[in-house]
Amino acid sequence: MNCSISGEIPEEPVVSRNSGLLFEKRLIERHILDYGKCPVTGEPLSIDDIVPIKTGKIVKPRQAASIPGMLGMFQNEWDVLVLSNFALEQQLHTARQELSHALYQHDAACRVIARLKKERDEARSLLALAERQMPLSSTSFSSNAAAVNVNGKRVNEDEELGPDGKKIRPGISDAVISELTECNAALSQQRKRRQIPATLVPVEALENYTQISSHPLHKTSKPGIMSLDIHHEKDVIATGGLDTNAVLFGRSSGEILSTLSGHSKKVTSVKFVGRDDLFLTGSADKTVRVWQQSDDGNYNCRHILKDHTAEVQAVTVHATNDFFVTASLDNTWCFYELASGLCLTQVAEDSETEGYTSAAFHPDGLILGTGTSEALVKIWDVKSQKNVAKFDGHVGAVTAISFSENGYFLATAAHDGVKLWDLRKLKNFRTFAPYDSDTPTNSVDFDHSGSYLAIAGSDIRVYQVASVKSEWNCIKTLPDLSGTGKATCLKFGPDAKYLAVGSMDRNLRIFGVPGEDGAMET
Questions:
Q1: How far apart are CA 265 and CA 286, in angstroms?
Q2: In the chain, which residues have pLDDT < 50?
Q3: What pLDDT score was predicted for residue 136?
């Protein structure tokens, strides 16, 4: 038999009384002196517990006088090496068992954590849904004590229907008109002294624009970004998706700040309000939602507005940040008081059958522009709610409207391209048709200074704004990197330092000059 430590036939065999294992006497004695336990079983073991075994005498060959000392030294070193190796093997075995157990525990903990997170998210969603469906008190967000919210919708207790079955609206009061007029006068006066900011990105830098980041914000099951808006002061970008969600994204941090759920169909329009952390969403589910940010950074739905009978296609906020307008395929646009969520007036043209597909306030706030599904652009006097001008000439639905900050130019996008209108003479002075007849132009946007114009279709093009008679040069063409061939919406960032673009995939793309303005590359 072999030694349980060295694996060799022992010269002086001994056996353990406790375990019955066979050892080399010198090896087991040294191990007992070092550890005081059996090297195999780990039980306590003393010198008295080992019993010598009588065997035939092993005759060693005679050796030269100098060799035995060397062999003895080698033997001693070998014994130490064997004992050390055996101890290391025991420790390795124990470590492997402990590691296996720890990995199993970690895997089980990860599964438990994932399940708890899922349950937490489901509970939060149910709680948020319940809060949105609960009636809000009249003092929490409304200054009109005669109104209540039922299932999130603003309803007047004394609301009446007219002879035609339509709701009777209170109308835009003289006080509201006075507020709109004062805002218009102040903004018009500022515009006369308006200068191009020195921080505006120059043409040379804009010519170097390229994609600097891409962020997957919406669900893969229903990809597509239908609308976007930018809060310039906070550097936050909002997107409305085909997946029924609105997402608020911090461009500087590169993180999703909040995902707003509640609509049952695609979110067609998103708009920031310049006060009280308010945010608006319009949807194909025929509703408009007013959201307000809470102290924990999440957004709560304060109002669900159900005044339209067809898809809401556009939401636009007045310069006072006290009122907003919604436009719908039901051929009406509604003028709302933001604080109460009350529809002051709902404007319809009985002679017209086309629905509204886009809308935007003029920078001064007394003019509203709307685009229709029948290729018409209509200009409205907000105070009287009268249609004061109509622009025709487009082909297909008017998908987007943008007023220049100079107050004179209006850009409209439709299936046939982009048309520029001079509001002073009420006529079209330039047309861009950058795409083929099968490719619509989906979005158009002036930057805040009125120096650049961007359009989106199968690609993204940026033009330098000029006068009515001068040529508007295309200074940059950016490819649609989504692979869908359809850029759906775009907005300039502050001072045109970047361009945010949404497409029919789930990614928000940021175009700008690489390495500038703290842009995050992903």
A1: 9
A2: 61-64, 135-158, 518-522
A3: 42
8-state DSSP, 326: E
**Residue 202 has which token pair?**
């120059």
Q: Is 6 helix (H, G, I), strand (E, B) or coil?
A: coil
Domain stops at, among 21, 42, 58: 58
Residue 347: domain span: 181-512
Q: Report the CATH number that the domain containing residue 334 is assigned in CATH.
A: 2.130.10.10
Structure tokens at 104: 């199993």
Cα(126)–Cα(223) distance, rounded to whole angstroms?
A: 24
User: Does residue 329 contact residue 344 with C-beta atoms inside 8 Å?
Assistant: no
pLDDT given for residue 147 in this prediction? 42
Is 92 inside any structural domain?
A: no
**Is the domain of 54 the same as that of 189?**
no
Contact at 8 Å (CB) between 45 and 10?
no
Q: How many domains does the chain have?
A: 2
Q: Are 467 and 421 in contact (CB under 8 A)?
A: no
CA distances (Å), origin 159, targets 166, 220, 253, 344, 511: 11, 43, 46, 12, 49
Are 471 and 199 in contact by the 8 Å Cβ rule? The answer is: no
Pick the last residue of a domain from 58, 78, 105: 58
